[in-house]
């Protein structure tokens, strides 16, 4: 571990102790007020002196690592001070889910912003489900609960079609906007942009789901030889699900003759399967596209890259002329087609290679398991766990270096070049049309502060959820990349664009996402087959869209369901849905991790 990383962790010890407390709470917030001296409710000591002197002290204490010079940081901070004058003394509240990045914002950034601007800014934290419920309530009642939200761009389909969002594009033109905001520097800007070209949401943080593995075990010459003797090809990062499955079998049952390393039982896979709402995002977060459902992300008319498949996305929803027309195969969708069913079947089969009881765990219960040290690989691992994995004693060698790495997710048998390879969560600033205009503008100032170049590098060091290109490519992360198990290399790679959030095909994310965990949870519990689960899900999604169409909820790009027809008609058409493959195993393929990373440094995709 680099000495500079140790120095930064020491520098932030006060902030991090408070952040940890916040992250464990269901709902928390930090409020700061104007004034020359004193402390905020957050426990962060405010600076002393004039506003210029306080700004300089905050830079030295919290934002010393920045892509800007200190002079440039001072210019940004003093712009915020001046722009906030009309809103001084105003009580403003924003809400986000309680991940470490937002805990840092709530504890540190909200307090600094409040002290410098005189705006009493409260940044509250709740669970993701609670945030979604409050946003849904606002949409239904058109009554403000908070003045701004960090909301995943998974909801972009509803945001674009509804009349309740006050777009970022409008704020950029009508409200105080930081001259150095540099909108093109945000790597996930397209995720919060509708098919109409309007920017509805501004990225605050992002994290991907990637492949995670024990680099030390995969690099062990004896283990490598054992694997190649059995399977006839090298042990490495699996490019496809066929190789992933072989590796899962090997570590669970064959390594050292009995599935043990150093006398301890190990497992070749980890997942979770409890019938719980968290099972929903286990699948909506691009699992089906990793298997190969949906269409490629290249617009068939323009050839330009889009975040999600066109005309069929990874939820299996077909869109024609921006209107959703069906989820089931009978309506041209892909939700219950062979690729989607295969995705669920493999998910269920691989529990044979996971630790006992994994199928009964939910997301939160399963998250710490790989950090315990007996899992060889995990297909579906969120990079938001990077900080916790770094801090796990079992995940470092005697020098403090990580014994694990993250790499691109392997793809399934139906996958083709141009398909998505995985999911990327993009928590983004979101504002409502019905909000109080002045409070919304004040919250917009805070959103810009929380994503400004002045603070973004320091924030990213804490949360490791990158949103800006300049931060990813900063000297700091170049010097410290080795501490993060491949995270920096992935975000600098050309392959990053293959990981995207849910897109605009989904017209009602809250209602439709709730159906996933119930259908697939029944399959995980052994109550129904994978095919029956996906048939149920496709039917439910069609029913929701039918209600939206009947109610005339969306004027623009509203649902226009296709009439059902024989499934074979759609299976015979080009693109998704695809007919069943005769061979779903395929030829296993791996790539050496170090070779993969070397290719990234040269600007090459590992798929080339």
UniProtKB/TrEMBL annotation:
Keywords (A to Z) from UniProt: Lipoprotein, Signal
SUPFAM superfamilies, per the entry: Periplasmic binding protein-like II
Signal sequence extent: 1-28
InterPro entries found in the cross-reference section: ABC_tp_sb, Bact_solute-bd_prot1
GO MF annotation list: transmembrane transporter activity
Domain of life: Bacteria
PANTHER family linked: ARABINOSE-BINDING PROTEIN-RELATED, POLYGALACTURONAN_RHAMNOGALACTURONAN-BINDING PROTEIN YTCQ
Official protein name in the record: CUT1 ABC transporter substrate-binding lipoprotein
């Amino acid at each position: 571990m680099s000495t500079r990383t140790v120095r930064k962790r020491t520098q932030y010890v006060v902030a991090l102790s408070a952040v940890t407390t916040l992250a464990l709470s269901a709902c928390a917030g930090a409020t700061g007020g104007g004034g020359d001296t004193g402390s905020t409710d957050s426990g962060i000591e405010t600076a002393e002196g004039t506003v210029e002197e306080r700004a300089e002290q905050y830079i030295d204490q919290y934002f010393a690592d920045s892509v800007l010079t200190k002079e440039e940081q001072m210019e940004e901070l003093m712009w915020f001070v001046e722009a906030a004058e009309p809103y001084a003394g105003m009580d403003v509240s924003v809400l986000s889910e309680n991940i470490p990045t937002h805990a840092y914002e709530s504890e540190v950034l909200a307090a600094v912003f409040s002290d410098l601007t005189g705006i009493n800014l409260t940044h509250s934290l709740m669970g993701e489900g609670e945030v979604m419920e409050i946003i849904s309530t606002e949409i239904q009642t058109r009554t403000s609960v908070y003045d701004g939200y960090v909301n995943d761009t998974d909801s972009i389909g509803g945001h674009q079609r509804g009349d309740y969002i006050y777009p970022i594009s409008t704020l950029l033109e009508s409200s105080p906007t930081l001259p150095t905001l540099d909108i093109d520097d945000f790597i996930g800007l397209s995720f919060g942009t509708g098919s109409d070209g309007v920017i509805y949401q501004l990225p605050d943080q992002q994290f991907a789901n990637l492949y995670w593995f024990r680099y030390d075990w995969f690099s062990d010459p004896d283990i490598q030889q054992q694997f190649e003797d059995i399977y006839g090809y090298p042990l490495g990062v699996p490019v496809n699900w066929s190789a992933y499955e072989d590796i899962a079998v090997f570590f669970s049952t064959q390594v050292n003759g009995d599935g043990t390393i150093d006398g301890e039982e190990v497992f070749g896979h980890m997942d979770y399967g409890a019938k719980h709402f968290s099972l929903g995002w286990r699948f909506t977060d691009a699992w089906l596209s990793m298997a190969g459902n949906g269409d490629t992300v290249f617009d068939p008319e323009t050839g330009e890259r889009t975040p999600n498949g066109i005309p069929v996305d990874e939820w299996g929803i077909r869109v024609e002329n921006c209107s959703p027309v069906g989820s089931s195969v009978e309506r041209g969708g892909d939700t219950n087609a062979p690729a989607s069913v295969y995705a669920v079947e493999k998910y269920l089969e691989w529990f044979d290679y996971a630790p006992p009881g994994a199928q009964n765990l939910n997301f939160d219960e399963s998250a710490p398991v790989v950090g315990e040290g007996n899992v060889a690989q995990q297909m579906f691992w969120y990079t938001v766990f990077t900080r916790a994995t770094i801090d796990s004693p079992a995940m470092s060698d005697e020098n403090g270096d990580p014994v694990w790495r993250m790499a691109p997710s392997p793809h399934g048998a139906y996958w083709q070049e141009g398909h998505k390879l995985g999911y990327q969560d993009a928590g983004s600033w979101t504002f409502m049309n019905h909000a109080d205009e002045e409070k919304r503008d004040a919250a917009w100032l805070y959103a810009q502060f929380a994503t400004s170049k002045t603070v973004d590098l320091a924030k990213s060091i804490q949360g490791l959820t990158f949103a800006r290109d300049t931060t990813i490519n900063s000297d700091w992360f170049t010097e410290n990349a080795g501490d993060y198990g491949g995270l920096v290399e992935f975000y600098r790679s050309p392959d990053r664009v293959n990981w995207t959030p849910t897109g605009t095909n989904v017209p009602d994310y809250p209602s439709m996402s709730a159906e996933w965990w119930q259908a697939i949870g029944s399959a995980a519990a052994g109550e129904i087959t994978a095919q029956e689960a996906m048939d149920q899900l496709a039917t439910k999604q069609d029913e929701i869209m039918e209600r939206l169409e009947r109610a005339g909820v969306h004027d623009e790009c509203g649902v226009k369901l296709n009439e059902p027809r024989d499934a074979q008609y759609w299976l015979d058409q080009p693109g998704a849905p695809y007919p069943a493959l005769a061979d779903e195993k395929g030829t296993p393929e791996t790539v050496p991790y170090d070779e993969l990373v070397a290719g990234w440094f040269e600007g090459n995709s590992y798929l080339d």
